[in-house]
Amino acid sequence: WDPARRTRRLHAYAWDDLPDGAFVVVGAGPAQVVGGTLRVWQPDNSYAAVTLRRPGAGTASVLTPPSSLAALRTGYARPSSSSENA
Questions:
Q1: How far is Cα of residue 7 from the mean position of the Cα atoms in its chain?
Q2: Which domains occur in the chain, in start order?
Q3: Lower CB density within 10 Å: C or N end of the chain?
């Protein structure tokens, strides 16, 4: 969060380097990486019914801080982020 600009700080990562649970910015807005898909986050604090295909190449604009990405890579997963609760 950049209080001077009231914007979030984005980080650039290769799509294939992102763990499940990472949040990225796509044309449809913020989305969560889940396997080969992106679950778009809605303004009403829910996920859209339709998922997007995760790009196979290129660079993602990542909302998740690097320290949280490291935790996700080591296996941390919130119960609400599992596919069983989708």
A1: 17
A2: 1-65 (2.30.30)
A3: N
Per-residue pLDDT of the chain (86 residues; tens, 9 = 90+): 455 666 678 999 999 999 999 999 999 889 999 999 999 999 899 999 999 999 999 999 999 999 999 999 999 876 665 555 54
The pTM score is 0.79
Q: 70: buried, middle or exposed (CB in 10 Å: 19+, 13-18, 0-12)? A: exposed
